[in-house]
């Protein structure tokens, strides 16, 4: 459907079908559709509004001759209509292209819902070129980045969408090359795109919004600065960051990127535009965006199906159509009634070069194994301890940003990265070095037994590796001086930092000095209340380095990595270690662990010597330690039987068993020196760790203070400095308040901690519940992840803390149920309701409802009936909620064989759904009644009810429910 000049032409493969002239009145029609749609998408129940808009669009498009209706008698599937305007378009043409064509509907409902049509509109700006780029013979090449800036609420749940794509990739459900940029920063994103070009899809997951004031409206993406702060990127700024190396498709998985907004700078007639339309006009071949706020679940499902089709050589147009249709189909794991609310939000825009097949090959474009061996950190480390290469390094976004922010602010002499062995400290330093393009890297590192490499002489020697001839001669002079007296190091290094390494221009390039694996020159504390110290022979050198960087006026920077935090004071008792910013490095989370596997081993075959690789099982036993994970996956590639033995051995070890027999894993665990670390702890600290082992997720550090008081740790003892400094307790962003610190016991060390007795757990439960509740639930409006509610309820049930259980149990149980933990969810539900009822506390209606659902699922029919009847005994003003309860009661009664009572419940449910104007739900209740009628032999009556049900689905355009009902009739 092409809008050119003042004429709208309908063509079928360039064959004209009809045409009509356009006039100013059409603008008012398009405007009404757009405004009505923008209003409808913000409403909870908008089905009728969307259907009415869709039918109005159909009537306009069908025209007086009914050509569209005729065409639908023998359509293609997917049925794609391309709406086209010129690049230099008028206000009315812009309104035409932004009309909500996705809603197109006839008397039977939305065309997109029809399985025989799978209708999908496409928007093209400009004439389609005959000279599109050649279809790739390689795998679909995709670069993914998510952005979630600090202090931006709500926190983007991007990991769900990212994890879905990663899982499809690792399971070989989609045949693609996948690269992940971790920064959230547009410049870094475009740099990676340029590194792995040509790129088929650049996928960006972030928040999007539209800024509006009295003068203008402008959409933007919520991306991140290099330090993680909010960077509002407009369409023009987005385009400026790209060179001519533009991906075939930009997937903007961000709310409102395709929402039509009026530009207030235009004439009296509003000029409509979108972020996606703008970047198409700036020369991008194709963009895919959302015309409103999309739910995480639907965005994730859409993306998975979209990539699956593209990887099988589908055109972009067909892939969008099929992904849209998938949203109408309930997920297999869906336990509750499902209906897509966001099916209409995805919009595909094409430029002259956009559309068609992106990739139809299966060849590897990149040699992953070769890339994996190209180390960027100077290659000095011994075999088995190399840092991760650029394409292997994943995660650690906030840590990178924190370091770069400090390097910008320059408040400290440098940064100390510390944590348990093999957590990726050196790889993190290498990644920061990779980001500092204006710096040369100076690596100070000594292999085992080569501690002398940390001496003053060798530190200066390493500076020669980045020195020009003149600077090299000056360094040689300094070397002679420090050979005689190492205390000269500070003055020598400071002169270099303020001179040739000052960074003031290209001739004076700054350095990043990395002192790696500092634990080689540290010594364990002799005082039970202290942390590690520096060996006497290296104290002067380290003091000189730190103070030189602190005092020098320079752009050079310092990173130190090591397993432990340490103390270091000079001869005047000044705290030299305190001049460093401390950055404890925790274990990877599950998504980061999966990304690490995919980045390095995602392309390997999943079966070797009749042994199957189980990535999820490996990720689970490695507990977020990248070094251990690398060992496990590399064992599979080289010795599958050893891999299997190692996997089983680690599972046993984590249950408190002996060291695994597989030598590489045994050596790894011995190298962690867990027993040595635990021997440094006091009885009080060990008692605290026993209580800390009760937590399954990071909890606010205030809780550790409460526990410390319970186990008798004195208030003046810096136990957190020791436990975090030894790598035993790990530090995270809090899951409810990201600006706060949360702590969690390292999951490998957890297996070495003796479990508490039931009585001891009871002793801690009360103070833990009270503290968690007061912190996480202080503001009832703040979103809490369900796993936080689970942690509160877990302790609240033990402590019999009614208030916390009443507030958090429903969310906890729904979350567990959604994650297929239904048996545990039912256990929590029964205990929660018993506690509240025994204490004569009010039980929330929602808790009764979900409790009935999960109990029904596991066969606890009596409990299911009891809870749903209790729901109905409560006074509920919401007729929809009451109707849902009667529907659930009817299904429980059917399972108990009480069909007459069930019919009464279903009839009441239907009546209340009608009252609530919930047509679809009332039809569902009719279907339940009809099935009972069939079981009683009343087939004619059942058919009448099913026909009534079908009429509702026809009215709503709900083709899937209609198909299910037709199946019941058959």
Protein described:
This protein has 37 helices and 32 strands. Strand 12 (207-212) and strand 13 form a beta hairpin. It has six domains: 2-125, no CATH class; 136-363, Rossmann fold (3-Layer(aba) Sandwich), CATH 3.40.50; 395-584, Rossmann fold (3-Layer(aba) Sandwich); 590-672, no CATH class; 676-752, Orthogonal Bundle (Arc Repressor Mutant, subunit A), CATH 1.10.10.10; 753-969, Alpha Horseshoe (Serine Threonine Protein Phosphatase 5, Tetratricopeptide repeat), CATH 1.25.40. Helix 19 runs antiparallel to helix 20 and helix 28 (786-799) crosses helix 29. It is globular and about 100 Å long. The chain is α/β, with parallel strands linked by helices and 970 residues long. It is 46% helix and 15% strand. The strands form ten sheets. An eight-stranded mixed sheet has the order 4-7-19-18-15-11-9-10, sandwiched between helices. The protein has a five-stranded parallel sheet with strand order 22-23-26-21-27, sandwiched between helices. Strands 1-2-3 form a three-stranded antiparallel sheet, with no helix packed on it.
Mean of residue pLDDT values: 88
User: What is the CATH architecture term of the largest domain?
Assistant: 3-Layer(aba) Sandwich
Largest sheet: 8 strands, mixed
Question: What is the CATH class name of the largest domain?
Answer: Alpha Beta
Distance between the termini: 40 Å
Radius of gyration: 32 Å
Q: What number of structural domains do the residues give?
A: 6
Main sheet: strand order: 4-7-19-18-15-11-9-10
- Spans of at least 5 consecutive residues whose pLDDT stays below 50 are 368-376
Strand content: 15-25%
In total, the number of strands is 32
Helix content: 40-55%
Shape: globular
**SSE class:** alpha/beta
Count of individual helical segments: 37
CATH names the topology of the largest domain as Rossmann fold
């Amino acid at each position: 459907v092409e809008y050119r000049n003042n004429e709208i032409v309908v063509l079928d493969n360039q064959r004209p079908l009809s045409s009509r002239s356009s006039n100013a009145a059409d603008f008012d029609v398009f405007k009404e559709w757009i405004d009505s749609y923008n209003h409808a998408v913000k409403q909870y129940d908008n089905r009728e509004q969307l259907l009415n808009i869709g039918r109005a669009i159909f009537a306009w498009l069908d025209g007086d001759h009914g050509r569209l209706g005729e065409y639908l008698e023998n359509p293609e599937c997917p049925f794609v209509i391309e709406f086209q305007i010129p690049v230099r378009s008028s206000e009315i043409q812009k309104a035409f292209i932004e009309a909500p064509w996705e809603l197109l509907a006839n008397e039977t409902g939305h065309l997109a819902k029809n399985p025989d049509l799978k209708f999908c509109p496409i928007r093209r700006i400009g004439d389609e070129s005959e000279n599109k780029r050649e279809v790739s013979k390689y795998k679909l090449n995709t670069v993914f980045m998510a952005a979630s800036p600090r202090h931006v609420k709500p926190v983007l749940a991007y990991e769900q969408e990212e994890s879905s794509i990663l899982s499809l990739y690792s399971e070989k459900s989609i045949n693609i090359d996948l690269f992940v940029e971790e920064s959230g920063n547009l410049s870094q994103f475009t740099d990676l795109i340029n590194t792995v070009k040509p790129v088929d899809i650049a996928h960006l997951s972030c928040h999007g919004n539209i800024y509006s004031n009295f003068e203008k409206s402008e959409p933007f993406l919520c991306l991140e600065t290099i330090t993680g702060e909010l960077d509002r990127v407009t369409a023009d700024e987005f385009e400026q960051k790209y060179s001519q190396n533009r991906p075939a498709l930009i997937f903007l998985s961000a709310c409102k990127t395709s929402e039509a907004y009026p530009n207030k700078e235009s004439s009296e007639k509003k000029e409509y535009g979108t972020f996606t339309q703008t970047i198409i006009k700036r020369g991008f071949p194709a963009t895919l965006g959302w015309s409103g706020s999309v739910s995480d679940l639907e965005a994730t499902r859409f993306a998975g199906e979209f990539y699956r089709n593209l990887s099988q050589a589908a055109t972009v147009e067909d892939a969008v159509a099929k992904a849209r249709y998938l949203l109408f189909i309930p997920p297999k794991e869906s336990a509750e009634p499902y209906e897509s609310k966001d099916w209409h939000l995805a919009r595909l825009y094409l430029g002259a070069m956009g559309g068609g097949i992106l990739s139809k090959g299966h060849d590897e474009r990149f040699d992953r194994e070769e890339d994996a061996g190209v180390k960027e950190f100077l290659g000095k480390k011994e075999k088995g301890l190399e840092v991760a290469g650029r394409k292997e390094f994943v995660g650690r976004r906030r840590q990178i940003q924190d370091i770069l922010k400090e390097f910008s602010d320059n408040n400290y002499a440098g940064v100390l990265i510390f944590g348990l062995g093999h957590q990726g400290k050196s790889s993190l330093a290498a990644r920061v070095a990779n980001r500092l393009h204006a710096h040369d890297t100076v690596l100070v590192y000594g292999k085992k037994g080569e501690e002398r490499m940390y001496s003053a002489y060798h530190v200066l020697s390493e500076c020669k590796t980045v020195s020009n001839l003149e600077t090299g001669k000056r360094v040689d002079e300094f070397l002679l001086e420090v050979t005689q007296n190492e205390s000269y190091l500070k003055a020598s290094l400071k002169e270099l930092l303020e001179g040739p390494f000052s960074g003031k221009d290209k001739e004076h390039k700054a350095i990043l000095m990395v002192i790696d694996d500092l634990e080689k020159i540290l010594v364990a504390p002799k005082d039970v209340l202290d942390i590690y110290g520096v060996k006497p022979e290296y104290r002067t050198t380290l003091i000189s380095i730190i103070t030189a960087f602190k005092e020098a006026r320079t752009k050079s920077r310092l990173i130190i990595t090591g397993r432990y935090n340490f103390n270091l004071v000079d001869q005047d008792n000044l705290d030299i270690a305190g001049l460093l910013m401390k950055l404890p490095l925790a274990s990877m989370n599950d998504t980061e662990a999966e990304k690490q596997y995919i980045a390095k081993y995602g392309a390997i075959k999943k079966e070797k010597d009749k042994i199957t690789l189980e990535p999820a099982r490996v990720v689970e036993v490695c507990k977020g330690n990248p070094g251990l994970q690398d060992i496990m996956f590399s064992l599979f590639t080289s010795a599958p039987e050893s891999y299997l033995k190692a996997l089983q051995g680690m599972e046993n070890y984590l249950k408190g068993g002996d060291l695994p027999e597989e030598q590489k894993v045994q050596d790894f665990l011995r190298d962690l020196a867990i027993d040595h670390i635990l021997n440094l702890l006091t009885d009080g600290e060990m008692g605290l760790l026993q209580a800390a082992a009760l937590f399954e997720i990071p909890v606010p550090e205030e809780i550790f203070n409460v526990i410390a008081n319970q186990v008798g740790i004195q208030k003046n003892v810096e136990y957190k400095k020791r436990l975090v400094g030894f790598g035993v307790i790990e530090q995270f962003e809090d899951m409810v308040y990201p600006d706060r610190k949360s702590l969690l016991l390292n999951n490998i060390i957890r297996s070495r901690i003796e479990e508490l007795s039931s009585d001891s757990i009871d002793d801690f439960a009360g103070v833990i519940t009270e503290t968690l509740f007061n912190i996480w639930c202080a503001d009832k409006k703040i979103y809490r992840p369900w796993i936080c509610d689970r942690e509160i309820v877990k302790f609240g049930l033990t402590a019999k803390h009614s208030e916390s259980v009443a507030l958090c149990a429903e969310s906890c149980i729904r979350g567990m149920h959604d994650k297929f933990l239904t048996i545990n969810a039912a256990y929590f539900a029964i205990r929660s309701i018993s506690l509240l009822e025994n204490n004569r506390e009010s039980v929330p209606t929602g808790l009764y409802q979900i409790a009935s659902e999960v109990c029904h699922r596991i066969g606890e029919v009596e409990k299911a009936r009891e809870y749903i009847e209790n729901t109905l005994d409560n006074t509920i003003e919401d007729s929809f909620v009451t109707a849902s309860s009667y529907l659930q009661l009817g299904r429980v009664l059917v399972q108990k064989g009480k069909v007459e009572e069930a019919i009464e419940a279903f009839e009441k449910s239907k009546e209340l759904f009608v009252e609530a104007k919930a047509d679809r739900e009332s039809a569902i209740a009719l279907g339940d009644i009809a099935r009972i009628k069939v079981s009683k032999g009343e087939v004619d009556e059942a058919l009448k009810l099913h026909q009534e049900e079908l009429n509702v689905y026809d009215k709503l355009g709900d083709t899937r429910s209609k198909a299910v009902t037709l199946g019941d009739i058959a």
